[in-house]
Amino acid sequence: MTSTKEFALDARDPLVRTATTRRVGLALAMFLAPWLIVGAEVGHAVMTLHGGDDLEPSGDLTLTGEHLTLVRWASLAALAGALLLVPAVLGVMRLVRVRAARLGLVGGVLTAAAYVCYFAMVFQGFTTAAMVKAGGSTSQNVTVLQAVLDEPLTRWVYLLFVLGNLLGTFLLGLALVRAHTANRLAGFGLMAWPVFHAISFPFSDVIGTAVQAVGFGLAAMALLRRRDPRTEPYELLRR
Q: What is the pTM of this model?
């Protein structure tokens, strides 16, 4: 039976009463989000298996025209994965917030920001799909897409995505290794993604995101086993 002291603490800090719900919610995001990214990377790998890329507007239009249905579903998986990766990153930051707090904060903020940028970039891709469906002049479509890429007010989005996706993820994994609050393989799994992304061979991004998903899964299991200490409100902010 809950003691009078615990009831008093719950009344003083209402966050205690939702601790389990928040922990389970974060863990679910950690399990699901990275596998949605894996699905998106599988779709991209299949599209480029026989050559071609989507780095330039002309190539993007060609690939989208050849694999329109696959592009749309892979983009949907990427959007959902990017959205859920923000709470997934918060879950990892929760594991490292004491023993590797500063490193986890830097890595977590960069990684979360990167996936916000990724969401924007993927959402922009639906414009390419709409152009392909509508038809029209290919040269005009290429000009419009190139103008979007060259917009000076949005170039920082691509730079922040690259910085957070590579450096941020690595630092977040390193914080997880240093914190010793989860299996060390969880941290190494996160750190493996930038390494596989930098290595160019078929399906390297798929392997990298799959290893990262395993790392997030191990971290989620550690988070589910973790029991939040009963602390005074905002005590952790003062540490």
A: 0.84
